[in-house]
C-alpha cells in the first residue's frame, strides 16, 4: 500500500492494481473509468511508480526510489509518455494549462489528436530504457477524434513491452473496439468523509463551508477545488450581483454584458452550473434551473454569449417578479 498512500476512497481500484503487480499479470491496456477529480490520474502515477520500483533489483531500489518519485511527479521518466488533450493555436499544439496561462480564448474543447497518437506509436516503437515496460497514459481519452481512436486501436493490438492507460469518465464514452482491448478499473465518487479528508489534506478545507460548491462537485474533490478556483476568479462585485438575480430589465442587460466581457466560454458554462446549484439551494425554483439549463445548451452550441445571458436573465427576472 506504500505507493498508494495518497489515493483516498478508491480501495477497489487499488486492490485490483496491486493484485496485478503481485501476480505479475499486468495488462497491456487499462481503462480507468470514473468521474473527473476523484483520483484516476493520481492512481495511474502511483501504479506506474510501483512498476518502475519493482523493475529495479534490490540493490538499486533504495538508491533510485527518490529519483523515480521525482520523475513521476515531473512526468519525465524515459519510459513514460503522458498525453493530454490539446488546442491548436497558430498551428501549434498547446495544453489546456498553457492555453489558460497564455490567455488563449477557447471556443471548443481540447482534443487528443491524430498527431499525438502517432507520437505514442513512435514512443512505443523502441524498447524501454530503464524499466521492464514502457507506459503511456492518455488523459480524457473520450476527447479523441475518430481518426485518433482508430490509430490508437492499431497500437493496442500490438503494444509490445508496454502498458497503455486510458483515463475516461465512463466506459461508454469510448469506442467499443477500444474498450474490448482494455482491462477496466472502476473509480467511484467519494463519500462525505473521504471528500473532507482529501480537501483538508490538500489545504482546501475552506471549501467545506460552501455547500453549493460541494453540491456542484458531487463527490469529486478535484471538481470541488476547480469550482472553488473558478469562483475565486469571478470579481466579487459581479458575483454578488449575479447571486441576487436581476430586478430590472436594465440590470439584466448590464449583467449579461459584464459576464460576456469578463468570462470566456468555459467559465460561463461553469457559472451556469454554479448558479443552478446556488439558486436551487436558496429558492428551489425548478423553472429558474430550466432557464439556466437552456442557457448552457445554447452556449455549448456557440450561440452569442451576451445574447444568451440577456435572454436568460430577462426570463429569470420575469419569474422572480
UniProtKB/TrEMBL annotation:
<keyword id="KW-0548">Nucleotidyltransferase</keyword>
<dbReference type="InterPro" id="IPR050238">
    <property type="entry name" value="DNA_Rep/Repair_Clamp_Loader"/>
</dbReference>
<dbReference type="GO" id="GO:0003887">
    <property type="term" value="F:DNA-directed DNA polymerase activity"/>
</dbReference>
<keyword id="KW-0808">Transferase</keyword>
<dbReference type="Pfam" id="PF13177">
    <property type="entry name" value="DNA_pol3_delta2"/>
</dbReference>
<dbReference type="InterPro" id="IPR027417">
    <property type="entry name" value="P-loop_NTPase"/>
</dbReference>
<protein>
    <submittedName>
        <fullName>DNA polymerase III subunit delta</fullName>
        <ecNumber>2.7.7.7</ecNumber>
    </submittedName>
</protein>
<dbReference type="InterPro" id="IPR004622">
    <property type="entry name" value="DNA_pol_HolB"/>
</dbReference>
Amino acid at each position: 500500500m506504500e505507493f498508494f498512500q495518497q489515493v483516498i476512497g478508491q480501495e477497489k481500484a487499488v486492490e485490483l492494481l496491486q493484485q496485478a503487480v503481485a501476480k505479475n499479470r499486468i495488462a497491456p491496456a487499462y481503462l480507468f473509468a470514473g468521474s473527473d477529480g476523484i483520483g484516476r490520474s493520481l492512481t495511474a502515477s502511483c501504479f506506474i511508480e510501483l512498476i518502475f520500483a519493482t523493475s529495479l533489483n534490490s540493490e538499486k531500489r533504495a538508491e533510485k526510489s527518490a529519483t523515480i518519485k521525482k520523475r513521476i511527479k515531473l512526468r519525465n521518466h524515459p519510459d513514460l509518455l503522458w498525453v493530454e488533450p490539446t488546442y491548436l493555436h497558430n498551428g501549434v499544439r498547446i495544453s489546456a494549462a498553457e492555453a489558460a496561462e497564455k490567455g488563449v480564448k477557447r471556443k471548443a474543447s481540447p482534443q487528443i489528436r491524430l498527431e499525438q497518437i502517432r507520437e505514442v506509436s513512435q514512443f512505443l516503437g523502441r524498447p524501454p530504457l530503464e524499466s521492464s515496460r514502457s507506459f503511456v497514459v492518455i488523459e480524457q481519452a473520450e476527447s479523441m477524434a475518430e481518426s485518433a481512436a482508430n490509430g490508437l486501436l492499431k497500437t493496442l493490438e500490438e503494444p509490445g513491452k508496454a502498458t497503455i492507460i486510458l483515463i475516461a469518465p465512463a466506459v461508454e464514452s469510448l469506442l467499443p473496439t477500444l474498450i474490448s482491448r482494455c482491462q477496466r478499473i472502476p473509480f467511484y465518487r467519494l463519500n462525505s468523509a473521504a471528500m473532507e479528508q482529501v480537501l483538508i489534506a490538500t489545504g482546501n478545507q475552506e471549501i467545506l463551508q460552501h455547500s453549493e460548491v460541494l453540491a456542484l462537485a458531487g463527490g469529486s474533490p478535484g471538481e470541488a477545488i476547480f469550482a472553488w478556483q473558478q469562483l475565486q476568479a469571478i470579481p466579487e462585485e459581479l458575483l454578488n450581483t449575479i447571486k441576487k438575480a436581476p430586478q430590472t430589465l436594465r440590470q439584466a442587460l448590464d449583467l449579461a454584458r459584464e459576464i460576456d466581457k469578463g468570462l470566456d466560454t468555459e467559465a460561463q458554462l461553469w457559472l451556469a452550473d454554479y448558479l443552478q446549484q446556488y439558486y436551487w439551494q436558496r429558492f428551489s425554483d425548478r423553472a429558474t434551473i430550466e432557464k439556466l439549463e437552456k442557457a448552457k445548451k445554447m452556449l455549448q452550441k456557440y450561440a452569442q454569449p451576451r445574447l444568451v445571458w440577456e435572454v436568460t436573465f430577462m426570463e429569470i427576472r420575469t419569474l422572480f417578479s
